[in-house]
Design goal:
The complex is a heterodimer of chains A (about 140) and B (about 425). By secondary structure, chain A is α+β, with helices and mostly antiparallel strands. Chain A is about 20% helix and about 15% strand. Chain A has a single domain, classed as Roll (Ubiquitin-like (UB roll)). A five-stranded mixed β-sheet of chain A has the order 2-1-5-3-4. The longest helix of chain A has 10 residues. Chain A starts with a helix and ends in a 6-residue tail after the last strand. Chain B is of the alpha+beta class and about 425 residues long. Chain B contains 16 helices and twelve strands. Chain B has a single domain, classed as Cytochrome p450 (Orthogonal Bundle). Chain B is globular and about 55 Å long. In chain B, a hairpin with a 2-residue loop joins strand 6 and strand 7. A five-stranded mixed β-sheet of chain B has the order 1-2-8-5-3. In chain B, strands 4-12-9 form a three-stranded antiparallel β-sheet. The chains are: A alpha+beta (about 140), B alpha+beta (about 425). The interface between A and B is medium-sized, with 22 and 24 residues.
């Protein structure tokens, strides 16, 4: 996994890209964001901004909205590694660490990088509103 | 299969007492009468213990979710403790390979060979596969009956395998032969009736590949599987039995499985002309149809594990040391997870949700290559508007592991 130094360097490298989106219009009186959003970047560069209900996995959000490039063959059981995404380094701290079985599967993905995660293992909450993930060339 | 045989199997499967059901009998796969037995187990006893099986006592896991639970729990359900097929062989008689290993050794060896099916390499192979598919399809006889298994399924997959190994092309049918021998459990009345006979033939396979290994180890690392194995730190010091084990794994994995999905696909389309018409009307459905073919065929009927500690599966207590057989072929027909599971539907909602590739760390490494070969084949069949008619019943192989065909008679209209 990332060391703190590398993580900081990664964040610095991405500074100024406007990753954090503030949408006060979406804040309800409770302070909860009505529907958090995720930016999916296809391998070719096309961007999809998707509403993702609280508690929904990032994989399910992509599949439900037909974002090309996420297969999710196992249906979210962390059993196939076909929902591989690269988490924007600025978001790595918020998305957290890989689980053990997730790490085992990503270990076999030839396109895995340090910021690789399985999207079925990331569940949406307010803290992830505005999350940016990039998709690999293909799922394997 | 005749209607009579279907009815008889259905009656028998219902009449026999539950504890006497042994779904591992290879004859039931050969005559395609295993289905009602699995149906009954899924309904009445989804995690089923068979005390007097043809291959010894074992648990049958027959439902999708239970199979998923076993497949993803490699710490409790070991591939190494007893191998991955229902037949037991003593440790000294086995040919170890990475599918029959647990981490960490499994991981290292798998990572040695997986680059050959990584996205970049697949993209390189696509053009080659397409040109071969075209050559094969264009050379098929017209207006005469021939065996689709031999002329298309075997030919295409064996050519592919020869390329992956950089194996002498003119000798490629040896790969088919070794693959068939490797998946044969010796049975009385069959050409291979003893383990000795089988192992003697596989020794020839080892000798042939050892020659290729010796050539390649003295050259710069290449991009074929033999060179990858010979140069990787994880595999270059393998003992001969382990080299042979991994060869068999790659030959069978890259050969039998796709071969039988190619044959199965043609058979299913002929049995379901409405689905074929749907595909002709909308070739964009090909990737979905490919997944459906792979689900419906389930080219490997089972994978076996051995419990290395007590565990509960589907409410049953499985004891340390027990043999546990995951019947992918049954889980793929589990109506609780797959709607209309017994129907062949090329545009179903979640076509990729099937067990044929397994799940967890042993999930099929070559699945994308397999899908690509099937996709290209169907693209080219449709592009040619080729009308391939099945003219008789398929002949199935007597195996509870390789779920496949030895022949499928077909005829192409002029």
């Amino acid at each position: 996994m990332l060391t703190r130094r590398k993580l900081q360097a990664a964040i610095n490298g991405r500074a100024g890209t406007g990753n954090f989106i503030h949408r006060p219009d979406q804040l309800k009186k409770t302070g909860r964001i009505a529907v958090p959003k995720i930016h999916f970047l296809e391998f070719g560069g096309r961007e999809h901004l998707i509403d993702v209900p609280h508690g929904t996995s990032v994989m399910q959000a992509a599949v439900d909205n037909s974002v090309p490039g996420i297969d999710g063959d196992c249906g979210g059981e962390c059993a196939c590694a076909t929902c591989h995404v690269y988490v924007d380094p600025a978001w790595l701290e918020k998305t957290g660490e890989r689980t053990v079985p997730e790490g085992e599967l990503l270990n076999f993905a030839s396109t895995a990088q340090e910021n690789s995660r399985l999207a079925c293992q990331i569940r949406m909450d307010d803290a992830l509103d505005g999350l940016r993930v990039r998709l690999p060339e293909s799922q394997h | 299969m005749s209607t009579l045989a279907v009815d008889r199997a259905r009656n028998e499967a219902q009449a026999v007492s539950l504890d006497r059901i042994d779904v591992s009998d290879p004859r039931r796969f050969q005559d395609d009468t295993v289905w009602p037995y699995f149906e009954r187990l899924r309904r009445e006893d989804p995690v089923h213990y068979c005390r007097d099986g043809m291959f010894g006592p074992y648990w049958s896991i027959t439902k999708y979710r239970d199979i998923m639970a076993v497949d993803t729990n490699h710490k409790v359900f070991s591939s190494e403790a007893g191998g991955i097929i229902i037949v037991d062989r003593n440790v000294g008689e086995r040919f170890p390979n990475f599918i029959s290993m647990d981490p960490p050794k499994h991981d290292e060896q798998r990572k040695t060979v997986s680059p050959i099916v990584a996205p970049a390499n697949l993209a390189n192979l696509e053009g080659l596969i397409r040109s071969r598919v075209c050559t094969i399809l264009d050379s098929l006889p017209r207006q005469e009956t021939f065996n689709w298994v031999d002329k298309v399924s075997i030919e295409l997959t064996t050519q592919m395998l020869a390329t992956l190994f950089d194996f002498p092309f003119e000798d490629r049918r040896l790969l088919t032969y070794w693959s068939d021998v490797a998946t044969t459990f010796p049975q009385a009345g069959q050409p291979i009736d003893t383990w000795e006979k089988r192992d003697a033939i596989l020794a020839e396979c080892l000798a042939y590949f050892t020659r290729l290994w010796n050539e390649r180890i003295n050259k710069a690392p290449g991009s074929d599987l033999i060179s990858m194995l010979a140069h990787s730190p994880a595999t270059r010091n393998m003992q001969p039995r382990e080299f042979l084990g991994n060869l068999i794994l790659l030959i069978v994995g890259g050969n039998d499985t796709t071969r039988n999905s190619i044959t199965g696909g043609l058979w299913f389309m002929n049995q379901n002309p409405d689905q074929l018409q749907k595909l002709r009307n909308n070739p964009a459905l090909i990737p979905s149809a490919v997944s459906e073919i792979i689900r419906y065929q389930t080219p490997l009927a089972h994978m076996r594990r051995t419990a290395v500690q007590d565990a509960i599966v589907g409410g049953k207590r499985i004891r340390e040391g027990d043999k546990v057989v995951m019947w992918y072929i049954s889980g793929n027909r589990d109506e609780e997870v797959i709607e209309n599971a017994n129907s062949f539907i090329i545009d179903r909602k979640n076509p990729r949700q099937h067990l044929s590739f397994g799940f967890g760390i042993h999930r099929c490494v070559g699945n994308r290559l397999a899908e690509m070969q099937l996709r290209i084949l169907w693209e080219e069949i449709l592009r040619r508007e080729m009308d391939v008619k099945v003219t008789g019943e398929p002949v199935r192989v007597p195996s509870n592991f390789v779920h496949g065909y030895s022949s499928l008679p077909v005829q192409i209209a002029a």
